[in-house]
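Good morning,

Attaching, inline, the backbone tokens for the sequence recovery test we're adding to the shared suite. The designed sequence is right after.
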């Protein structure tokens, strides 16, 4: 292999490596998006990341033991920090969170 061939091989190897790295990055599944409290649907349902931050005047029946991770619609398990929720498609809600659609998880 002469000097020019080695140089060509070297640059082609780098180009192929970069292309493979980019392809594997693109092939990764989308990272789950955490629900924003300011999302219009979240606001409509008074969603909070922390159940203790819920407006007690607006939701007098709410109590701090009601959390996403003990709600029937939470798709994670008790103690999970974040997990999908059946109400907010494609988003994750906080385990200690709450919204006005809270339903006690069946035992
Ligand atoms: Fe949390 Fe349940 Fe409301 Fe979903 S429906 S945000 S799990 S309280």
């Amino acid at each position: 292999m002469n000097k020019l061939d080695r140089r060509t091989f070297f640059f082609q190897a780098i180009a192929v490596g970069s292309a493979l790295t980019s392809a594997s990055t693109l092939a990764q599944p989308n990272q789950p998006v955490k629900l924003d409290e300011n999302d219009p649907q979240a606001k409509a349902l008074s969603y909070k990341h922390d159940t203790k931050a819920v407006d007690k005047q607006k939701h007098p029946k709410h109590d701090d033991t009601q959390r996403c991770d003990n709600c029937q619609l939470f798709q994670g398990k008790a103690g999970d920090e974040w997990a999908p929720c059946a109400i907010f498609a494609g988003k994750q809600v906080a385990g200690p969170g709450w919204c006005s659609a809270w339903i006690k998880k069946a035992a």
